[in-house]
Specification:
Blueprint lengths: L18 E4 L2 E3 L3 E7 L6 H14 L3 E3 L17 H13 L3 E5 L14 E4 L7 H8 L5 E4 L6 H13 L5 E5 L15 H10 L4 E3 L1 H5 L2 H14 L3 E5 L17 H17 L3 E2 L12
Parallel strand pairs: 3-4, 3-10, 3-11, 4-5, 5-6, 6-7, 7-8, 8-9
Antiparallel strand pairs: 1-2
Helix pairs in contact: 1-2, 1-8, 3-4, 7-8
The structure holds phosphoenolpyruvate and manganese (II) ion (MN).
The site of phosphoenolpyruvate has 11 residues, from loops.
Length: 285
């Protein structure tokens, strides 16, 4: 019999784990954290515009893939290390934290200054990568595999905790289903089950789950109602020009609309939107 998860189980930490991704910015506490940005970093101008949209909507974290795991080798593969630098610079100018995907441990030097290391759905079963990230003391965002059971997802997280890294956020991003009208099937049951079974925070990616812009806001609200700890959402200044996943990218005004609608849903389940700490003047000034 396969030994089951242990360190990730809720009974180990009934109150839950808060993952601190930047000073004053924890995922898994009372506050709901929205991470947003384009599928991929494309150029300096695109990521600067996206960062302004993300900050303007009140989201604290900028996403953007630089090392992209594309289904076809002929698709845009991302800007690599240069893309991470562009992402970090754009985020710094807007005082945002950053999350970006890492495909292999040997790329780690390019990820200096990245607040949250994303393991994508295709790499959830990449055990050497999980073992390497388990040796770090840096936050990891672990997406659920394309067809992974909740048990397999928790066991992937267990690899990180077994290495000593408990700074792990789980992300439900839809699973392979039979329904062709969505890219994947968003499994909100898995969010509730994962929240019950583990002490780790769980967020939802409604963009890759649905593949369709018009479904992203309704399912984001549903995720908040289901008890998710946050969202990972794709937004692009000009989705029609996006080099990847344009059909699922929100427009900047859609992101503002989502952020305006979330607090009512969060309030109904006893949560609140993450807000920056009020600026405190240094004594004597
Ligand atoms: C992504 O978030 O950029 C991504 C590739 O998503 P997933 O791994 O869920 O397909
Ligand atoms: Mn994408």
């Amino acid at each position: 019999m396969t030994p089951g998860p242990s360190l990730v189980l809720r009974e180990r930490r009934p109150k839950g784990t808060e993952v601190l991704i930047a000073p004053g910015l924890a995922v898994g506490g009372a506050a709901f954290v929205v991470m947003a940005g384009p599928c991929a970093v494309e150029d300096a101008n695109q990521i600067a515009e996206a960062a302004a949209a993300v900050a303007g909507a009140g989201c604290p974290v900028l996403r953007g893939g630089a090392f992209k795991p594309r289904t076809s080798p002929y698709s845009f593969q991302g800007l690599g290390a240069a893309g991470v630098r562009l992402l970090r610079d754009a985020a710094a100018r807007q005082r945002l934290a950053v999350v970006t995907e890492i495909l292999e441990a040997s790329d780690l030097p390019a990820f200096e200054g990245v607040d949250l290391l994303q393991v994508g759905a295709r790499n959830m079963h990449n055990f050497p990568l999980l073992k390497a990230l388990g040796q770090l003391r840096r936050p990891v965002l672990l997406k659920r595999g394309l067809a992974a059971t909740v048990e397999e997802w928790l066991l992937a997280a267990e690899y990180l905790l077994a290495g000593g890294n408990d700074q792990v956020i789980l992300c439900e991003r839809g699973v392979r289903g039979f329904e062709p009208s969505t890219r994947n099937t968003l499994d909100l049951s898995a969010v509730v089950i994962a929240k019950q079974r583990t002490h780790l925070p769980v967020i939802v990616d409604p963009s890759h789950a649905t593949g369709r812009r018009e479904l992203v806001i309704p399912l984001s609200l549903a995720a908040a109602a289901a008890g998710a700890d946050g969202l990972l959402v794709e937004v692009h200044p000009r989705p029609s020009e996006a080099l990847s996943d344009g059909a699922q990218a929100l427009l900047p005004e859609d992101l503002r609309d989502l952020m305006a609608r979330l607090p009512a849903v969060l309030g109904s389940v006893g949560r609140e939107m993450w807000r920056p700490l009020p600026f405190r003047r240094a004594a004597g000034r």
